[in-house]
Design brief:
Layout: H1 12-23, H2 26-36, H3 42-47, H4 49-59, H5 66-84, E1 85-91, E2 103-106, H6 113-123, E3 130-135, H7 142-150, E4 153-156, H8 163-182, E5 187-191, H9 206-212, H10 222-229, E6 231-238, H11 244-257, H12 266-276, E7 280-286, H13 297-311, H14 316-326, E8 333-334, E9 339-340, H15 347-358, H16 365-379
Parallel strand pairs: 1-7, 2-5, 2-6, 3-4, 3-5
Antiparallel strand pairs: 6-7, 8-9
Helix pairs in contact: 9-13, 11-16, 14-16
Length: 383
C-alpha cells in the first residue's frame, strides 16, 4: 500500500497536538483577529493574540478527536448559513444508502462552500461526513493546511514541477481516494474540474476521471473500475454568488488582456467571501450512482455533465440575467418546486438582482450577466 502520510487528513490521536500547535501559532492568531475585526492590522492584531488564544482555548477545550472538531465546525457553519442563506434545500439523497460510501463529484462554483453544502446535507441525513479534496495552492500557510486536515480534507498536490512528480502524485491521490471509499468506507468529495466554473458553464474534465483510474488493477476493465468507484454526480446551484463581481473582473481581464495575474492571497479572500457573502437560496441535488457500461473517461465525464445539468435547479436570478441579455423571458422552471418562471411575479428578486448589477463596473456587466444566464442557455440547449 502507498504511504499517504503527506496528503491524508489527521487522525483522532493527532487532533489535540495540532490544536495546541495552532494555539501557539502567532500568524494563525493574528489571522483570526483580523477575521473578527477586519480593521485590525499589524501590531494591533499581534496585541490581541492573548485575547484570541484565550477565547479559542475555551472553544476547543473538549475537542480531542475529529468528530468533536467537526461538531465545532458545524456550530460555526450553522451560524454562517443563518446569516447568508434564506433557503437551503436538497434532493436525491433518498436514492443513496447511509451504510454505503460514495465518491461525490460536483460542479464547482465556490471553493469552500461547495463541499460544505454537500457535507451539511449528508451529515443531517444520517450519512458519514466527507473526506474533501483540496488543492495545495490554497494552503499557502501551514496553519491553513492544519485546519483543513483537521476537518477531514486531503491534499491535491498541484504545485509540482516535473512530469514524473506530477504522475507520482496523481497515482497516490487516485489510490488514496479509492482506498478511502472501498477500504475505509468513507465518503469523498472532489470537484469535477480544477478551478471554479467562473462563467457558469459546468463541465467535467476527463483528465480527472483518468486520474481516478490510475489505481485500477491491470486485470480490471475500465467499466468495472467505474462501477466499483461508486461515483455520484452532484449539482449545486446558488441564487446569488458572493464572488460574482470578482469572477466577472477576472474573466474580463482574461478577455481584454489575455491574462490575469492573481494576487498572492486572492484565493483566501475568495474563500472568506464565499463563506460570509449572501447567497439567498441554495439547492444541492444528488444524482444516481454511475454503474455499468462506461468504457472510457469521456463517457464518464459526459454522464456526470448530463446529471449535473439535468439536476441543476435554476433560480429566478439566472432567468433575470437571461432577460437582460435576450430581452425576453426563458421558458424554464425555477426553484426546488419547479415553478414556471413566466407564471410568477419576481419583483423582489429583480430588485435584488438589479442592485447587485449596479455594483458591477459597466465594462464587466456582459460577463457578469452571462455568468448567471449561462445555466439557462444550457437548459434551453442554446450553449
Amino acid at each position: 500500500m502507498l504511504d499517504f502520510e503527506d496528503i491524508r487528513p489527521y487522525n483522532d490521536n493527532e487532533v489535540r497536538p495540532i490544536l495546541d500547535r495552532l494555539l501557539s501559532d502567532g500568524e494563525f492568531l493574528d489571522t483570526v483577529a483580523k477575521l473578527k475585526l477586519p480593521a485590525v492590522a499589524g501590531f494591533a492584531a499581534r496585541a490581541l493574540r492573548g485575547v484570541v488564544r484565550s477565547k479559542l482555548q475555551k472553544e476547543v477545550q473538549g475537542v480531542n478527536d475529529v468528530a468533536s472538531f467537526q461538531t465545532l465546525v458545524e456550530k460555526y457553519l450553522a451560524r454562517s448559513l443563518a446569516e447568508t442563506v434564506t433557503d437551503l434545500s436538497y434532493s436525491g439523497l433518498e436514492q443513496l444508502d447511509t451504510d454505503s460510501s460514495y465518491l461525490f463529484i460536483s460542479n464547482h462554483r465556490d471553493i469552500a462552500m461547495d463541499p460544505a453544502f454537500v457535507n451539511w446535507g449528508l451529515y443531517h441525513n444520517g450519512f458519514s461526513t466527507l473526506r474533501i479534496a483540496i488543492g495545495d495552492n490554497l494552503l499557502t500557510k501551514p496553519f491553513a493546511s492544519d485546519l483543513m486536515r483537521l476537518n477531514k480534507s486531503f491534499i491535491v498536490k498541484r504545485s509540482l514541477n516535473t512530469r514524473r512528480e506530477k504522475l507520482q502524485a496523481a497515482k497516490k491521490l487516485s489510490a488514496y481516494i479509492h482506498y478511502s471509499v472501498l477500504n475505509d468506507g468513507e465518503n469523498v468529495w472532489i470537484a469535477q474540474r480544477e478551478g471554479r466554473a467562473k462563467d457558469g458553464l459546468d463541465q467535467t474534465n476527463p483528465a480527472l476521471i483518468n486520474m481516478l483510474a490510475l489505481s485500477k488493477s491491470k486485470d480490471m476493465s475500465f467499466a468495472e473500475y467505474v462501477q466499483e468507484a461508486r461515483i455520484v454526480p452532484v449539482s449545486i446551484s446558488y441564487a446569488l454568488d458572493p464572488c460574482d463581481l470578482a469572477k466577472a473582473r477576472e474573466l474580463y481581464q482574461m478577455s481584454a488582456h489575455g491574462e490575469y495575474e492573481k494576487d498572492q492571497h486572492e484565493d483566501v479572500q475568495s474563500i472568506a467571501l464565499g463563506i460570509t457573502g449572501f447567497k439567498d437560496k441554495v439547492h444541492v441535488s444528488f444524482g444516481s450512482v454511475l454503474e455499468q457500461g462506461y468504457q472510457d473517461a469521456d463517457a464518464v465525464s459526459a454522464e456526470i455533465d448530463r446529471q449535473v445539468e439535468a439536476n441543476f435547479v435554476l433560480h429566478p436570478s439566472h432567468c433575470i440575467a437571461y432577460e437582460f441579455i435576450e430581452k425576453r423571458s426563458p421558458k424554464v422552471s425555477v426553484g426546488k418546486n419547479a415553478v414556471d418562471f413566466s407564471s410568477q411575479d419576481w419583483s423582489l428578486e429583480r430588485q435584488q438582482f438589479e442592485a447587485r448589477l449596479e455594483q458591477c463596473k459597466e465594462k464587466w456587466r456582459p460577463i457578469f450577466l452571462e455568468g448567471y444566464a449561462n445555466p439557462v442557455y444550457r437548459r434551453l440547449g442554446e450553449k
